[in-house]
Amino acid sequence: MAEPLFQQLEKLQQEFRGHPPVASWNPDLCGDMDLVILSDGRWIHEGTEIQRHALVVLFASILKREGRHYYLVTPVEKWRIRVEDVPFLITQAARDGEQILLTTNTGDVIPLDNFHPLLLKPFGDPPLPIPYVEVRAGLQGRMSRDVYYQLIDWAEPRQPQEPPARLCQLWLKSNGEEFLLGEY
To answer: Could you tell me the pTM of the whole model?
Structure first.
């Protein structure tokens, strides 16, 4: 009989620093877990918000995306969960020389670069272009409002080079790359 999920997670957390190699784990689907990651970043299990941040961080470390579905995986178990938008929120931004560093609500620190690009995607009602960032292995994070405003302060306004002619575009530079932050 397989060990309970929490015991497996504790062992994995001790074994791996950072994130376990979930991309190489392909167990059979065990079923659907009553767990949803809300668009505001809260994790809800069986109708109750998970209050222990360490547990959210632990679950986030074994999160995997396949197509449009999200799973919590271990080497021997795979549980489908629901994600309203994306699993992470970008809650902090910092500049370190020519690099912008972003921090997620689960503590991942990622550079804004060609491996972690900024993408504009529609969000909300009415849908507006909001910046998202590739966090890891197909898992994205959406910018919090505070971080978005911080990045706007750091952005360079430019006139668009191609039609349709907008009034202005905002560009960010990080790690030798440029990212379109928005247009107005």
So the answer is: 0.84
